[in-house]
Predict the structure.
Amino acid sequence: MNPMKTNPYISLLMLLGISVLLLLIIIAILPKGPETDLQQAISDQVGMASVSGKVVVDMASPNDESPFVSITIPHDNSIVSGTHLIVRGTASDNVGVSRVMVRVNQGEWQVADGTTDWSAPVIFYADSDTIRAQAFDTSGHASPLDAVTVTVQ
């Protein structure tokens, strides 16, 4: 075998390895943004073979925004009958809501069912009770509390 003659498949593999290394370097120095598309076409020097592909790299900025939560049922200062009620509300976040927590007065927090549209059963203990809700996003940020006060009959 002639040591001066190179197998075209070995050349292609070497070229692919170098291209992957260059792609990793490019990814490392790209500016951070919501999404960056990279298109890389690789072909050998004599044009005998070519390889192409598309790489999508998600380089989202860190989540530094807090979520928002709102109690939609019951309304603030409403009158409710009985000691049990299903509280409903909404929550939102720029990335994603992971959970919503609800409590009555200074009672224990409970996890609501759902995230962006949520509900939770509550029990009232006094003639006037305050329901509080708080949302948490997928990065662990907490929303400001939302609260409504109800009169129980």
In short: The first helix runs from residue 8 to 29. Strands lie at 36-43, 50-57, 68-73, 78-80, 84-92, 97-104, 110-111, 117-123, 128-137, 146-152.
